Amino acid sequence: MASDMITQRLVAEFRATFGDRLFALPGDAAPLGIHWCLAPPIAATAALGPDGHPPRQHDVSVADFPRRMWVGGHLDLLRLPKIGEVIERTTTLAPIEVKRGGSGTWCLTGADHEFATGAESLIREHQDIAFRPAATAPAPPPAPVPLPASDMLWQLPTPDTLLFRYSALTFNGHRIHYDHPYATGVEGYAGLVVHGPLQATVLLNLAATLLGRMPARFAYRATAPLIAGTDMLAIGRRDGDGAAVSMHTPQGVTTMQATAE
Fold first, then answer.
1. Which of 79, 166, 184, 191 has its CA 20 to 30 A from that of 142?
2. Strand 242-248, strand 232-239: pairing
3. C-alpha distance across the termini of the chain, in Å
4. DSSP string spanning 5-30?
């Protein structure tokens, strides 16, 4: 269990990072997605691994599966956290599954988090995490595709400073978000990688804007890396009582898909 307070400073930094792409909330409600900034794992600098992550909680071999990826999950949003509240996060690790496919052998696991204040549960989340072998060669760039039809489109730049600020908000030391030689030379990406929860935060707020209220449930899945330095395109459309939202590169490649109910 870990706890954190939603301070005025954290909220101000969060709002400065995302600008006008946050759903307007009443009174002292904290912005949607700020829970991903609460009570992060804190390890001494000397304890960080070669990738910048703290020691692993999951029993997955670093030698065999050095690359860690945040690949999706779902949220049940029960009540908006408020500025000034102390939030407790309880975490339960998910079992490890060994997967084999065309891209080789990898491990899928994750964690269940409950964010609560006192006896009141606010957010329940399941996160999926993948551990993969070392990169062998950079993946070829996907072919451009047309963007899907939408009811709303947000276009956001992805400068290095955006990644730096979000890493600071979440105390995230993963080097793929700030160390270009490491991201390209060791993990095989085409450049610095935009954080999964950063994309999910934008999509969650886009869905709320489309629906005019906080969704009760939000499910998300990363489908491709989003490389910094170009705009990211968040696209949403109404789908009955819910919304379907997705993140894309300027070439139309989908990097995250999500649904809100």
1. 166
2. antiparallel
3. 29
4. E--HHHHHHHHHHHTT-S----TTBP
pLDDT (tens digit per residue) in 166-194? 999 999 999 999 999 999 999 999 999 99
Domain that holds residue 152: 2-260
Please give the Cα distance from 200 to 127 (Å, whole number).
12
- For residues 243 and 259, the answer to whether their CB atoms sit within 8 Å is yes
Check: CB of residue 256 under 8 Å from CB of residue 200: yes
- What pLDDT score does 144 carry? 84
Q: How many domains does the chain have?
A: 1
Instruction: Specify burial of residue 79 (Cβ count, 10 A radius: 0-12, 13-18, 19+).
Output: middle
Structure tokens at 154: 């947000």
Q: Which parts of 82-119 are beta strand (E)? A: 86-93, 97-101, 104-117
Structure-token match 């998910």, residue found: 94
Residue recorded with tokens 């670093």: 62
CB burial readout 166-201, b (16+ within 10 A) else e: bbebbebbbbbbbbeebbbebbbbebbbbbbbbbbb
Below-70 pLDDT ranges, the chain: none
Q: How much is the pLDDT for 26?
A: 87
**How far is residue 198's CA from residue 183's CA, in Å, rounded to a whole number?**
18
Measured from the Cβ of residue 204, the count of other Cβ atoms closer than 10 Å reads: 26
CATH of the domain at 14: 3.10.129.10
Diameter of the chain by CA atoms? 51
For residue 128, CA distances in Å to 133, 134, 144, 187, 237 come to 17, 19, 28, 20, 25
| Helical (H) or strand (E) element with 122 | strand 120-132
* Structural contact between residues 163 and 195, judged by C-beta atoms closer than 8 angstroms: yes
